[in-house]
Structures are given as structure tokens and as C-alpha cells.
Fold each of these.
Amino acid sequence: MPNRYIPKAELEKLEAAYKGYCEYCKYLQKYTSARLQNDHIIPLALKGKNEFANLAKACISCNANKHTFTSFLDPVTNEIVPLFHPRQQDWNDHFQWSEDRLLIEGKTPTGRATVILLDMNTPEIVNLRAVMPKDEHPPRR
């Protein structure tokens, strides 16, 4: 059974890095009573480690949908591709906001597969994005 204990130093690095948003869908923590979760980018079940390089802050929806997946089908190329890795990749390289800034669009195979698997544009989160103050959404880099 994998060790689920995350050392305090690694958690402190993670807290400092995430800036209050889900690192996948950019859901802002302060607008929910549900705390963002510690996601293992490479799941412990697949030999992922309890270290900052393998941890991301994720909303409940993204974390639950990601589950133990590390890759998924890109609908354009019809190929299985790696999911977005917040510690190794820049969000803006793989995603963009729709013109009205309500939807996350994948720009790359990785981005498209991640948007679909994590269901990053649920009606609830799109509605939240619509009422968020312009200085908080979309988040600045």
C-alpha cells in the first residue's frame, strides 16, 4: 500500500505555489466551502511520489475526474496523450480562455484531453466564472 503521508515541507511548497486556484481549471478556492485537494499528478498507485514535483492543488471536481489517469484521448488526433502536468508544463501553453472568458479551451492535444477528462467547463463552474469580479477572473499568471 502506498504511503499517503506528505511531508510538511512539501505541503508548504505546494501551499505557496498554488495562489488560491485549482491548478487545472483555475477554480478560485475562496468561492467554495470545499477546500482544494492535494492531487498526486502521477498517482501513488502508479508509483508517484509524495513530493512537490508530483503534487498540485485541485478542486474536488478536477481531482475526482482525474482519479488515477495520467493520459487520455485527444478528440482531434484520436490519440492517447499525457494529461497536463502543472509542475512541468505552463498552463498557458496548453489552454486558453474563450473570447467571453467563461470556457477553458485546449490548445494542444494535452490541453484538449485534459479539458475533456477533467470536465473543466461544467455549468456550475461556468456560472461561477460569469459572476466573478474581473480582477479575479481569469487569473493573472
Amino acid sequence: MNKKTAIIITSISAPNDVLKSIAKGAKENNIEFILIGDVPSPKDFFIDGCDFYGMDRQKELDFKLAKILPERHYGRKNLGYLIAQKNGATLITETDDDNFPRKEFWNDKRRKQTVATSENDGWLNVFGYFSDKVIWPRGFPLEKIQDEQKQKKLFKTQDVICPVQQGLADENPDVDAVYRLTYPLPLKFDDDFSIAVGKNTWCPFNSQNTAWFEEAFPLMYLPSYCSFRMTDIWRSFVAQRILWENDWHLLFHKATVWQERNEHDLMKDFKDEIPGYLNNDRIVKTLEALDLKSGKEFLGENLKKCYQKLVDMELVGKEELNLIDAWLEDISKIA
């Protein structure tokens, strides 16, 4: 990976095999590994090669966001992003505590890619191009699953800038509860394809194996006042909409991790995903209609405008706007 790279995970786990593997690889590759804990995290957490931030240490951070972020929430990962930026990272990779890295996970990443490119294709089930089995990513509208998808051979290969890059995960990929309740797993994706998603094409991406280049750092923000299972999904829609304004693309590439999934209550996941099942298509149509500005200097303004719309739709709590203000203020101080 690039020299100034950081890896961010949030976890309440005691040191496990995944975290030890990440720490080992980070140390070998001279990469900063920041682990953000939460209230239930072990007080004495330690892994060599891992910079752990428990709650006490988080409260000492000189970030406005650290004072107001909700506890016991995945959104505390935002603090890891800020720490990495303050420490000079130019590439931030995030994953989860149940994703084992493959050797390719540590490879250098390039923001400019020569790949198959999708534009003006509406909803695109990217997972379907990596497997001949029925599969779709978490956050993909259920009402669109049966829609006919563009043939792989019809995508043009182009040179594009991809400041956000989503790697897939083998074995237990990031699918929704409906899929897990109705289709068998594990599943291994094909590894001979990459695709860049551009303007007027939508596909949800997650926070489980995702790399962000410096110009897109403001778009990493994870909302706290929404359904837990939609936190990274709705972030992905906001990020994609803003990427369009800068002629940037979102890259999907082969799996570089494999997941031994933490225990989940699938019916609870299903309940938490209902706001997405009912609203994801409506959200993207609403975001498409927004008048946003092009230019890196407008990323924060665009971010706030998108979340204001989600608040207006009563999908995200109005408290979110204070967090976004703090996030943007903290980033501006770092810059």
C-alpha cells in the first residue's frame, strides 16, 4: 500500500485472529492500524502493531466530534478517520473485525484505473458480474433485483479516477438479511473483473473493505442517527452522488478479504434493514434531483445538503446535522 496509509476498524472484540492478522500485516507493510473501541471494549486491549483508542482515550481527542458522537454505535469509526487524517494519511482503508486479509489486501492501490466503466445504467447489481449465482449487495432495492442487467461485454473500458474503491469479501459477502434467510452461503466471487461505477449508475457499497484516497476523505462520514444496518449504505449513496459532480468513479474489485461473520440475529438484521428496503430507491431519486456543486472545495457543502435532504425525508434524525458540522470543522482544522 501507499506509504502514508492507515487502516481503520471499530470493534468491541477482545484481540481475535482477524485483528492480530491485520496488526501483523500493517506492521510488516509500515501501515498505521487504528482501532476504535466502544463502551463494551476490553479496558486492557493490546495487540502489537495496533493503536487502540478506548473510550477514555477518545474523550481526550481534540476533535469536536469526539465530544458529541453517540456511544455504542458504529459511527464512532469517524474518529478513526479523523485520527488518520491528522497523522498525515493520504490513503485510508477500512475493514471489520471479522474480515481476514488476503495477501492482495496489502497491495498498492492506484486512484487512476483502466477498467470497465458503467454510466447512465441506473441501478447496477455489481455483485452479479462477479458470480454466476443469484446474489446482490446489502442495500440494493429488492424491487430491482429481477431487472435485466447490462451484459458485461457492453461496458466500455476507460481511464477513470477512482478515489473510492470497494473490495469484495469471499465466504460471507455483505448481503442483506433477505438473502441470508433465503439463499445458501458461503460463496466465492470470481477474481478476474473490476468495474468503475460513474454518473447516473447506482450500487451500494459498504465499510468492510473500502479504500479512500485523500481527495474523497470528507465523504467517509458515517451517520449515527439512522438505522444501524443503513449507516454505511446511506453513506454510500451520498458519496456516490457527490462523486458524480467531480467526474470521479467508484471502483469495485475482486475480493481481497474473506469473512468469518460475527454472530448475527438475522431477524433483527431484517428489522433494521426495513427502512432501506422501503426507501433506498426513493433516496437515490431524491439525491439525483439535488443541485450540487463541482469542485473539491464544495465537498462539505454538498455533504451537508445531501444529509439535510435525508433529514427532511425523516430517515435521518435532525441531530445528524450537528455531527456533520463538527466533522467538517474538525477536517478543516486538520487541513
Amino acid sequence: MRRFLMPLCLPLLLGASDTFLYRCGDDFHFTARFEKGGVWLFLPKRSVKLPFIDGRHPGEKRFSEGSVSLAVEGESAVLLEGGRVHASCRNDRRAAIWEKAKLDGVDFRAVGNEPPWILEITGDRFDFFYGYGKKRFSFRAKPRVDRDKSETRYVADAGGTPFEVTLRPDPCRDSMADETYETRVEVVWKARRLMGCGMALHCDKLRKG
């Protein structure tokens, strides 16, 4: 596991936006970050910003710059890049949530079920979303690295209640999402022990604990 937190590998895009991860019919995939007046495309070998051009018919939006253009209608898209057409592209909603968190600057993200919860770590800030109403708690904590066990532990005070997070580098399967992640996550909060899975979203240097 990359024990953690790293400088960003992608430019951060601030402000209101919508993030989509498109999977196309030719096994090509890319991320699109829509913002006022344009869209950022994160392609396998480069990133490019396209301005909004127009729409050929109601419901369609087109973006274009140089040899790259994108036509979007609902959650479907067609990408033209370098003379190659990637058609039948559909948004992968579940994967797009993780891409949005990455572009928002989140360093590590974890999810759990029964009850549902989400944990996002950005630097030393923790955002914990709990339950179907997604009640949110935000607080700060520093890591305590247990090098013998190869795990990272955080202890904090969340609104007067002790909150403990342990990250263990071990494959973890989320059966509800049918996904496997790189890290097992344990949250102890309000006499509850919550288990889930997560992964680091940014690469390069580890931040020392």
C-alpha cells in the first residue's frame, strides 16, 4: 500500500463541476470534468481543456479545441481525438464518484456498508459521512504509523466523541459494489466498529507519519 499521502498527480479543478468517467465501446475510457463554459478531459496520455461550442440538437452539448472534440447527450458521449473516434461512451457512475474525489483533492477514500459510511482524508482533515442521510463530521488527525504491523492509525476527537481509524495494507473486497481495493479500513466510533475498504487516490511521495 502507498502509505500515504502524496502530492497531486492531476491539476485540481476548483468550483462547481460535474465529473464523469466514460467507458467506450472500444475499451477506451477517460474522465471528463464539466465546468462553466467548458470541460477538462483527462485522457490516458494527456489532459486538455475544451471550450463549449454548441449543440446540434436539443439536449446535446459539444466541446472542441484543435484535434479534440467531445459531444455529450445525457450520460452518453462521443470523443474525437487525434483522428480516432471513440463512440458508445457511457458514464460509469460508481467509478465517477471516486474520480470526482480525486480531482477534488481527496488523498484517501474508503466506503463501508450496513450501515453505509464514507471516509475521505485530505491532508490531516477527515470527512466522515454516516448513514443514509449521510450525516457529516469533519475533524483533523495526525497518523501514528505502526511499522511492525504495516498499518496506519489515526485517533481524534469528533465533536466530543473519540474517533479511531486504522488502515491496513491488504486486499479488501466490497461485495456490494463487486470491487476490490488495496486497503482494509476499520473505524471505531460511538462504541461501533465499522469495517470497510479504501484506496489512496494520489501518487508519488509518501507523507511520513
